[in-house]
Amino acid sequence: MGSIGQLDQAQEHMKREGWCVVPDVLTPQETKEVLDELWSVAAQANKRGEDTFLPFLDPNESNVRFAAEGENQAGKSDTAAAFAKSSHNN
Q1: Out of 2, 19, 49, 68, which residue is the most buried by the measure of CB atoms under 10 Å away?
Q2: Residue 64: exposed, middle, or buried by beta-carbon count in 10 A (0-12, 13-18, 19+)?
Q3: Residues ≥6 apart with Cβ < 8 Å to 38
Q4: What is the dihedral of CA 74, 77, 81, 82, to 10 degrees?
Q5: Is 66 within 8 Å of 45 (Cβ atoms)?
Q6: pTM score > 0.70 for this model?
Q7: Taking all residues of the chain, what is their mean pLDDT, rounded to a whole number?
């Protein structure tokens, strides 16, 4: 995301489409850690019987949703929820 023009384009795309790609925000290792945590939280939700795919709302099964707060079962802080909250507030 090297220039203000690219940032403006990303922000406009976010407003219009509800998503955007911002390259190089996370390192490959950070990306792996966040994805691992997200899939872990989704798996825990499935074990509790919570739906992570809502056919009436989600375009396809690749759209995984869950509500997670606090700590996961391993007692580790919930990186996924913290990441989602911080992203939502910005």
Answers
A1: 68
A2: middle
A3: 64, 80
A4: -170
A5: yes
A6: no
A7: 75
